[in-house]
């Protein structure tokens, strides 16, 4: 029997729910799913790099040999052999990482959420780059911090600016390698400066590093984790070197913080899927990534060069862009009077999509920037899409 309710429920959301906003990128992706759209919008790894055959073999091996373990609940901190593998891969002669520092998470986004939950109170000062990763701004915003934007230049975050505004902050969030959205890389000298300043201020430094393995020359810079393991929180992911569909990342933190993050994870989801962790370990344990990652680097380097060449050929004077040394993104700055949100609507009509830059800023966003991702688009489509976009921009000059 259906019960009639004369008055519909008036939902009263928690105050923190008022902070929730849809991802600008996810909303744009809904528009760009049509096959005719040349999409430079999504920060998606190329499906051509997914090791389908190797992972099929790994699934079969895990389920045939350890199926009852893989399909059972697992420990909150993660599958022990995989945590040990991660700790060993990050260790250097001067900085030994132990498995107790490693927490497996359901994608880096969960790691960001757990860090926000554990470290941020309402009104806490949180330092971020200018611009910064949209997913981190979303995750941290739920805990209602006061964002302080650290000025940046073509070499990334300026350490001296952190020294000016870092006193009393809860954390500093940085992406030093081939940053999303700009593609910039923080030079080694700045890394040392940043770590030293944060140590002096007692400021936790989050080093988010999903793209570090994707250096086009195969020679990534030193991780800030190894400069100060007691003060740097390192985040990594298997999304860019295997596949994002497995939703597997990790946080490496000083043991007291790692333990608190584990408690927060227990409240969130008990543990990350045991089967997924075991399959990833089975795939990588014998050195697969040493041969697999170079193929990703070469593909992305080739795609990047195609886009850089197209930008140089077609874009009008007055536009500028980054020249990344790795990763998946190019950042474009247009003359100040061009609003890239409006430009996007016109571009979609011309079957081209990108991400406007404003959502990547925590404060005072400019309207004239945009992000281009090149790794999922064939070379001929890159050239066509850049040419069409250039024509729209030229018409506004």
Question: What features would you describe in this structure?
Answer:
This protein has 397 residues and is α/β, with parallel strands linked by helices. It is 40% helix and 14% strand. The protein has a seven-stranded mixed sheet with strand order 2-10-9-8-7-3-4, with helices on both faces. Strands 11-12-15-14 form a four-stranded antiparallel sheet. Helix 4 packs parallel to helix 5 (134-141) and helix 4 (108-119) crosses helix 8 (255-269). The radius of gyration is 22 Å and the shape is globular. The chain starts with 23 loop residues before the first helix and ends with a helix. The model has no long low-confidence stretch (mean pLDDT 94).
Spans of at least 5 consecutive residues with low confidence: none
Strand order of the largest sheet: 2-10-9-8-7-3-4
How many runs of DSSP E, i.e. beta strands? 15
Helix count, per DSSP? 12
Helix content: 25-40%
**Which sheet architecture does the biggest sheet show?**
7 strands, mixed
- What is the residue-mean pLDDT, rounded to a whole number? 94
SSE order, one letter for each helix or strand:
HEHHEHEHEEEHEHEEEHHHEEHEEEH
Give Rg in angstroms.
Answer: 22 Å
- Which structural class is indicated by helix and strand composition? alpha/beta
Beta strand % = 5-15%
The termini sit apart by: 66 Å
- Assign an overall shape: globular
